[in-house]
Amino acid sequence: MLAVVLVPLYAVVLTSLSDQESINLAGGMVLVPHHLTLESYRAIFSNSLIVHSLLVSLTITVVGTVFSMVTTVLCAYGLSRPRSFGHRAILMALVVTMFFSGGIIPTFMVVSSLGGYDRYWSLILPSAVSVFNIIVMRGFFTHTAQDLIDAARVDGAGDWRILWSVVLPTSRAVVAVITLFYAVGYWNSFFNALLYLPDNGKWPLQMIIYTYTLQGNFMPGTGAVSGQHLGHQALAPLSLQMAVVTLTLIPILVAYPFVQKHFTKGMLIGAIKG
């Protein structure tokens, strides 16, 4: 099972470090090192559009994750309190949205009418909250030890204080998991950019990959890179593509080890007692 995961990842990284001769020799993805080079990465970081798209993706991921987590935590905490006003009706209304939606065209019309077309916030707000994540976090909050909450209320703590000092510290597992879910979602998202950002100068990195995959044009608006040369060495299109894919994998690979230990607990304790 480990090989099933690591071999494709190994092939992607090795191909990104290979020249056209090595790719031709392998007949595609490279599995045996031969003529390793960093020219593809030099080409990526020498292009201002690619560097800017990387910064856009990082910014959208950080800002979007923070906004989504604040909204999700507040909503989940309110719905987890049995005496909160209208919590059952609100929960049912949220659940309905998991099965029925307005569709792409109505959503596009709403976002555009609110001024979101060609604006960065359109990459965040239309998909800022996941009802599934709210339900998982609500289940976790519901099982917070009632004795701790009662003790905090006796000491004069209000809901804000209870949430910050009691509920969140005892819910680190689910917070870590949901944070990673949101971060990965924002980092990998390209569809909102496809809908709302006509200017390729504002595109995130995933949209650059999408364009290159469909059109073979690695640098939108600046001409195809497949014929570009650095020095005397031609850049292999497949190597360039795998280099960008590798760059998109790095943040996830760096973040995952820090939250991996929370996955089982964070996803199951809200649904299974014990």
Summarize this, please?
The protein is mostly helical and 274 residues long.
| Overall number of domains | 1
Question: What class would the helix/strand composition place it in?
Answer: mainly alpha
The description of the largest β-sheet is:
2 strands, antiparallel
Q: How big a fraction of the residues is strand?
A: under 5%
Tell me what you see in this structure.
The chain has 274 residues and is mainly α. It has one domain: MetI-like fold. The protein contains 14 helices and two strands, in the order ααααααααααααββαα. A two-stranded antiparallel ribbon has the order 1-2. The radius of gyration is 23 Å and the shape is globular. The two termini are 29 Å apart. The C terminus is likely disordered.
Helices and strands in order, then pairings?
Layout lengths: L1 H15 L3 H7 L12 H7 L2 H33 L6 H13 L4 H10 L17 H12 L3 H9 L4 H9 L4 H17 L2 H6 L8 H11 L13 E2 L2 E2 L2 H23 L3 H6 L6
Antiparallel strand pairs: 1-2
Helix pairs in contact: 1-13, 3-13, 4-7, 4-10, 8-9, 10-13, 12-13
